[in-house]
Design brief:
142 residues, 2 domains, 4 strands
Amino acid sequence: MNVCPEEIRVRNRRRELASVRRSKEYQQRQRLLVLDKSCIWCGRRDHLLIHHTDLADYQTPAIYIQALDKGWVMCTYCHRAYHSGRILCPICKERYTKCATCYQCMPQERKDEIVARKVRMKLLKRRLNKQARARSLEKIGK
């Protein structure tokens, strides 16, 4: 099994930083920093953590702990959504989305466009499958 050196470095760094996050010093410092604060996205006051905003924070464990001061306070749900490329819907502030708004808050015209595109794609797929089936039957001589 071939693994690129960069992937090995990332794994080792993650393992090292995970041990730092489990340390009492890190947990106490994080607890103090999130005390009486709320998530910058959704406003929740529970399940809070600090999101490191600078890649330089990950160089050494000592810097990683010191950099907590300049991180963002986020709840675990928003933090997970942020790292998967989603945002909190700016209108309802209830659902995460990869678009400008969640589907529920979208204007009806946009919803109609999405449904029409899905129908077109379904019809196209059906037509292509039918053509492929006809070509394969033609090849075998039926």
